[in-house]
Design goal:
The protein is α/β, with parallel strands linked by helices. It contains 14 helices and 16 strands. The structure holds 1-deoxynojirimycin. The site of 1-deoxynojirimycin has 10 residues, from loops.
Length: 489
């Protein structure tokens, strides 16, 4: 094992609680469901779990509309279920990260209810209010970011849905209350947080227009928004963390700007989404890895991610092919930085085709939120046979029970990759050097190891060494079509 903080080369497993496992028969996943499967995560070998929001929420944005930062939704089992989960995770050596949503609350949060009813009251200036829409900002969910509130008779700002009013971090009370929220969960024992769209919290109080907004891209503002005040706020947030881990979502389109949010006084890590957007091409993946290496330099590194609750699963994005999903996993888990695995990608899941009636997310991001199948029988281990979202395709085969019995399957590949990362400090923490390689092949060194990934559908001749792990057996001494290998030397 390498020295240094636990998170540096760690593997974090993202759980979307609604989709993990239901133990009550509600059809919605819950925290006792997570606790029940912690031993599986220990078997898989991950270091930590990150729970997407678990707080009381109307669920307009899948829990990212938080109505009480200091509680756990009864849907998930409330605070007692959370305490059980935390204790059981710690007993097993697993760290637990919570999602922290600082940019906005639910419109049902008592702070907003108070703000809209009483402009002169204690929460009157906790949100952004104006008599007219104060600028040209769009909502990332479409339409303007300003909505008229009939109660207060003013417009409020919301960069996401109108049920998610933006907090005004320039108000001292907001800063104090949000930081107290972090302290509350740290006191309860959590190991850190994933901070949602944290680049957005610093604001020039004049809320100036953003020039040249692309009207065809509602996400343009979120992807370009920068304000120096965010850095000061991050320093205040980090000071509260007192050594606990803070990974941030900084979804800037220009990834080269993201490392300015990551240092010893701000975020420990920020997500790099560039591989999520990359086509299936060795050159495209290479250029994104090279860009991250250049942007961070040796002192920093990203939190790499292939799949999440916001995007189609990576296997779906790459033609539904398991061989590609395997190659992608091999790259993800051998990169420098902190890889995040999204629950179910280790089963090679793809997204279900959904009818409009089955969709619940306003942006249609439902596919990757399909429930995780644990067993082969029709209910797949869930207490309710018919969960809130349809099963992913081929759930009778792509489930934990079946795949744990297949040592050549994708689940075991994830397990072997994570174990290899644990065994080799070079993989967790060593330098990364991109290597020259034949067309269609991505190759890099991690200290004493070499990773080769063949993105083509033909075998390729590459320098060989002792194969520590391969996604497909070599053919005639060649790297197999659409295969990856980790070599010693
Ligand atoms: C990013 C989250 O991942 C996404 O699901 C959510 O809609 C937005 N932030 C707003 O909270």
């Amino acid at each position: 094992m390498s020295s240094g903080p636990w998170w540096r080369g760690a593997v974090v497993y993202q759980i979307y609680p609604r989709s993990f496992l239901d133990t009550t028969g509600s059809g919605v996943g819950d925290l006792d469901g997570v606790t029940a499967r912690l031993d599986h995560l220990v078997w898989l070998g991950v270091d930590a779990i990150w729970l997407s929001p678990i707080h009381p929420s109307p669920g307009v944005d899948g829990g990212y509309d938080v109505a009480d930062h200091l509680d756990v939704d009864p849907l998930f089992g409330g605070l007692p279920a959370f305490d059980r989960l935390l204790a059981a995770a710690h007993e097993r050596g697993l760290r637990v990260l919570l999602d922290w949503v600082p940019n906005h609350t639910s419109s049902e949060h008592p702070w907003f209810v108070s703000s809209r009813h009483d402009a002169a009251g204690p929460h009157g200036d906790w949100y952004w209010w104006a008599d007219e829409p104060a600028n040209n900002w769009p909502s990332a969910f479409g339409g303007p970011a300003w909505t008229l509130d009939p109660v207060r008779g003013q417009y409020y700002l919301h960069l996401f849905t109108s049920a998610q009013p933006d907090l005004n971090w320039n108000t001292p009370g907001v800063r104090a209350a949000m930081l107290d929220g972090l302290r509350y969960w740290l006191d309860r024992g959590v190991d850190g947080f994933r901070a949602d769209v944290v680049n957005l919290i610093g604001r020039d109080p004049r809320l100036p227009d953003l020039a040249d907004l692309d009207p065809a891209n509602p996400n343009d503002l979120v992807g370009r928004y920068r304000d120096p005040r965010t850095h000061d706020l991050l320093r205040a947030i980090r000071a509260v963390l007192d050594g606990h881990f803070l990974v941030g979502e900084v979804p800037l389109a220009d990834m080269s700007a993201v490392p300015s949010y990551v240092d010893s006084t701000q975020l420990h890590r920020a997500f790099d989404f560039s591989l999520m957007e990359a086509p299936w091409s060795a050159q495209a993946w290479r250029s994104r890895i090279a860009a991250a290496e250049a942007a961070y330099g040796p002192a920093g590194a990203p939190a790499w991610v292939l799949s999440s609750h916001d995007q189609p699963r990576h296997r779906s994005r790459h033609g539904g092919r398991e061989d590609r999903a395997r190659v992608a996993a091999c790259v993800l888990l051998t990169l420098r930085g902190t890889p995040f695995v999204y629950a179910g990608e280790e089963l090679g899941l793809t997204d279900p085709e959904l009818t409009p009636e089955q969709r619940v997310d306003p942006l249609g991001r439902d596919g990757s939120r399909a429930p995780v199948p644990w067993t082969a029988e029709p209910g797949h281990g869930w207490a309710a046979p018919d969960p809130w979202m349809p099963w992913p395709p081929h759930a009778a085969r792509r489930n934990v029970e079946v795949l744990r019995a297949e040592p050549d399957g994708i689940l075991w590949l994830y397990r072997r990759l994570i174990a290899l990362r644990r065994e080799h400090p070079d993989l967790r923490d060593g330098e990364l050097t991109l290597l020259d390689a034949p067309p269609g092949v991505l190759a890099y060194r991690r200290g004493g190891l070499t990773v080769q990934a063949n993105f083509t559908d033909s075998p390729v001749r590459v320098p060989r060494g002792e194969v520590l792990l391969a996604t497909e057996p070599a053919r005639d001494g060649m790297l197999a079509p659409c295969a990856a290998a980790v070599l010693a030397g």
